[in-house]
Amino acid sequence: MKLAVNYEMFVDSFEAFDRSGQFSRNGLRALFDYLSDIERDLEEEMVLDVIGICCDYVEYDGIVEAANNYHDFGEYTQNDFDDDQLKKAAYDFLTDNTRVVVFEGGVIIQNF
Question: What is the pTM of this model?
Fold first, then answer.
């Protein structure tokens, strides 16, 4: 038996596994939409694995913070990059290496 999961059930599942603090409300919404898009694109149903999602994906406040966990972007600020150039360099680095979900208030990346 399979059960179609809507957004509310998705959020409730994180609460049931005591993982409600893993992602912000906006982050959960973005992640739900992202995973739903993948499921639709692949035309294959996914199994909701809250623990697996929490291990695979991490939320950050910003794209530069996320990228700094994998590469030192301090060199870009020393070379007089402006904020937009720094964000673009961080975004390009991440999208070259992993999946990136940008949303209002933050970014979620798949660990790599």
Answer: 0.86
